[in-house]
Every structure is written in structure tokens, then in C-alpha cells.
Amino acid sequence: MTTRASDIDRLVALDRAHVWHPFTQMADWLADDDPLIIERAEANHLIDIRGRRYLDGVSSLWVTVHGHRRAEIDNAIRAQLDRVAHSTLLGLGNVPSIELAGRLVHVAPEGLTKVFYSDSGSTAVEVALKIAYQYWQHRGQPAKRQFVALAESYHGDTIGSVSVGGIDLFHQIFHTLLFQVHRVPTPYPYRSPSPDDPQACVSRCLQSLEKLLSEQAHEIAAFVVEPRVQGAAGMLMQPPGYLPQVAELCRKHDVLLICDEVATGFGRTGAMFACDLEDVRPDLMTVAKGLTGGYLPLAATLATDAVYDAFLGPHASKRTFFHGHTYTGNPLACAAAIASLDIFERDRTIDAIQPRITELATLLARDIAPLAHVGEVRQQGLMVGIELVPDRDARSEYAYEAAIGARVCREARKHGVILRPLGPVVVLMPPLSITAAELVELVEATRRSIIAITE
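Above: the chain's sequence. Below: its structure in C-alpha cell form.
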């Protein structure tokens, strides 16, 4: 089935006239005589208005978990529609939000027992920052109101989450709007003074963090970190051992640990949550993206009893957390999330993806890593970053204006694959439902596209 030519022309014209696309240079978009507009989907493929099929190589921006049009999730949303589409959580409850909270606590790292809903990864982080700030006010330590974040961090696009973000390309223009944050080095071995010694890189980063906390912990509310994988920074993989030592330093210096699992949660790293890989138990954890299986906007900030209890008191104490969103705990979204967790449990999804992770690693090592302009291939689970360089021996970097990643991803469409770059890094993050044959297709399209653009 394809859209009629007259409808295609109308849709393209309407889009050009009225839609402002995120993270998109609109001058480039408007100059494109064949913009990619998706009409429908089947399993792990997207289909555009001209009937062309594309393997969804980035899970529709890291959200699609079990594939598109999964019957169990479709049916759960339809069933909920027969009950209620939305009811506020401000002073009321609703059944799906209650059921989902119990399910999330069951699968989350031990100790996270309370669930505060919001609408996106950015708002989930915003919630975590405000909770951490207010927590110390209630604990009688009002001086603890500063935050620590990694140098190349990304935590969303609201003002608070941008403040703790550290990617100049995205955030520098908003500098005067933001609150000040302590920056500590990112454990990024490839760009470190000792690229062949990841643990030396880890040691230097931890020393910097320990020095900061030992001197200023009395003023620091929390350290916010993307566990194991810094997604938007270019799929930077933290070497094993870094995150547990961060958690230990936070405990030692009485600083809350906020783990941002918006991108890494729900199986992406090969575990349900990245924290599970090294048994890290944060004080606050944010989830979104894959929470509903990629169906509807929903996010949550999980907290420990110790954090939650600091907000309890008589009405006159004004310890209420004065924060909320109109669609907080939306029943349709919660129903989708419950259905997604049902699939995880019934299909033993985490176990099922282990062979795919190994197969992907083999394909990357054989077909991508040897290419002349591939500096490094980074993988954690089904999250992959391929860093492109003009000179792999010198580890030099492509100029921003070369748009090398964007050009490779554009080329991949000719091979029936949708990818999205992060600067010079080509990202692969397929749905957990991807098949072995589709992995071959994904990697081969990526290989051919890199060669076509760089050689």
C-alpha cells in the first residue's frame, strides 16, 4: 500500500509549511526534494509514504523495544481505551499507574521503592534534580544544593537537565540560562592520554571526582550520571569498575547518586538496567524511552524510601513535592508499559537477546572495525557507536561542517536502513526483537555506507 501521489505532494507541502523538526537544520530539510515521511510499520521495519521499507536501526530514537505493532501492546491500549483514557494523579489514583509502579519496583535495582511519573526523559531528570535539592532542605542541610555531572553528559532538554548536560554543541548557546554545575572528566579511553589502558583512564577520572567530593561534599546535593553508556555524547562506554566506584564515593561523602537510565534502560545494555551490570543501587533513577515499548510518552523517577521519607510531614510543614505534569501516570501509557513488561517476562527477553549481542559483536569486529576511517567501535549490549576519523593512526577528528555522520546515515537509506548520527559517530541501536538475519542486513548497510562516504 502506498499513498497516492496527490496526497504525497500535499503532505510534503504541509510539512514544509508548518512542522519544525527537532535537532534538524530546517534549511537542509526544506532543500530535500524527497523527505522521508513514515506512514506505517511492521515488526522491525518502517514504511514511508512511497511504500519503501527501512530496517529501524535506531529503534525510532531508542524507544522501540519489542518491534512495531506488537499485538500484546496494541491490545492493552485498546482495552484501556474501553475504561478511561486519562485521569489525573494529582490527589487521585488510577489503576494502571498503580499496577505499573509495582512492576517497576520489582524489576528495578534493589532499594528503589517509590515511583514518580512524568512525561519524558528530560522531565524525569528534572524531577530527580528537584527531589535531590529539596531532600537536603528537609534534612537540614540547605548548603547542599549543587550538582556534579560528567563533562560530556546529556540528560535532556529542559533547563535543569540542560544545566547538568555537558555537550557544547547542544548546550553552549543557553549558557546564561543555566545554573552552574561541577564537571568531572568522562572516562573516555579512546580520547584519553592512555587510550590502550582503560583502567588508567578510570583512575584519573575517579581521582578527580574524589578530590571534588572530599573538598566540597558539604555543598553538593547529587552526582547525576548516565550509567555505563553516555548515549548522546557518542555512545561512550564507561570501562567496567567505574560506576561501582562512583557509587562508593557518593556513599562515602553523603552525596546522592542519580542514575539516568532513560537511554540504557529496558534491555539496551544486555541487562534490564545498566545499573544491574555491576549491582549499583542509586538513590534516584530515571527511566523513559523504552518504558512503554516505544508506544506512548511516559517517564518515571524512582527513589528510595530514605529519599521519599524526607518529604513526609503534616500539611503545615510544606514538605510536599510541588511538582507535577498534566498527563502524569497516563492510563493508556501505563497500560502499554505493563504490556511491555509482560513481554519481557514471558519471552525472557533479556536471555533471548544474548545471542544477538554476541552476533552483533562478531559482525562489527569483522566488517566495521577494519575500515580505514573507523577509529573505534564501541558496544554495550545492543547499543553501538562507530566513531569515524579522517586518520585512524592520529585519532584526528572530522570537522563539524563535514557532517560525516549525517552523510553516512543518509547513504544508509539507499540500502533500506534508518540510522542517526551523533556528530562523527554512527549509532546502531536496533529493537531487542531484531533477528540474526536483520543484524547482518544492518551491519552490511552500515559498512557499505561508510565506505561510500569516506573512501
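The chain is about 40% helix and 15% strand.
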